[in-house]
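Memo to structure team: turn this sequence into structure tokens by end of day. - J.P.
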Amino acid sequence: MAVTSDEFNAEDRVLELEKTCQRLQRQLAAAKHKTEDLVDAVERAAREAALIVGAAKPVTSLKASKQRDAHACLLHLTDWQLGKHTDSYDTSVCEARVEKTIQKTLRLAELQRAAYPVDRIVVLLGGDMVEGITIFPGQAFEVDSTAFSQVFAASRLIESALVTLLEHFLIVEVYEVAGNHGRIGRKGENPRGDNWDRILYRITRERLTGLERLTWHEPTSWYEIAEIGAYRALLVHGDQIKSFGGNVPAFGISRKAIAWSSGVTEPFDDMYMGHFHQVMQLTMANGGRVFVTPSTESGSEYAREFVGARGRPGQRLHFIDPSAGRVTAEYVIWLD
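Reply from structure team:
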């Protein structure tokens, strides 16, 4: 049977498609190995650095309060974007503002202790702890340090914060989620788990292993549920919210929070998130609230251009009644 020119062309197209698929598979494998090598190198360096620096300094033992009805702190640390450089922000400013956050937390805890014991603090690490260098074109020109340096600086900062808190609270618990600025490479280029936030959390967690009064909950998903007695807090970064119904983040945040509370996640009372570099508080239909925490960054073009507001640097501190399962005091720790 005669073979037509169309059939020849079809066979040629199949061969070309096969060659293209093979080339893409080789490129994907190379990119995957490159990412795995990068992650392995950072973790290997972390172990070596830990040996050189030594273990975290010992922490003084504390005694539990004999009074009943102790309350707890909830400290939301998020969106440090350490390594970002603006006209009013860089790594040194970030470090100073985080230290200021911890000192203000201790002072506010002392004020609350005049009314009731506060023996426990739950720290929510909300992601975007580093700026990264490759998640959008031109980002490398807006940073003051490499991704490697950012990771270790943020790790040291978190370690210092947690050790200081252990000196003033009987129990310190940590929950973590990753942010979009921790992403390695462009969006979709690498697995979601390959994230600088995850790497620096692990570095810090392993360095603090052995501190008896510190509990670090290893992540299980893109969100975490922090339990403080009867109170359940949903922790997300916020980059999961992509549809706003116009260009108003509050509408999209409310819609997503209500959807998550309908059974998509485990039950929760309130939700904590960052990402938008602004302070917001929204009420859901079930009476729960969404708390949006600002960044330590200042001079944010993202906040000015996208959200249409000047992002004041800050973090969030709440006090929780574990028995009643509710927030009893709310503070935004302003850092400007």
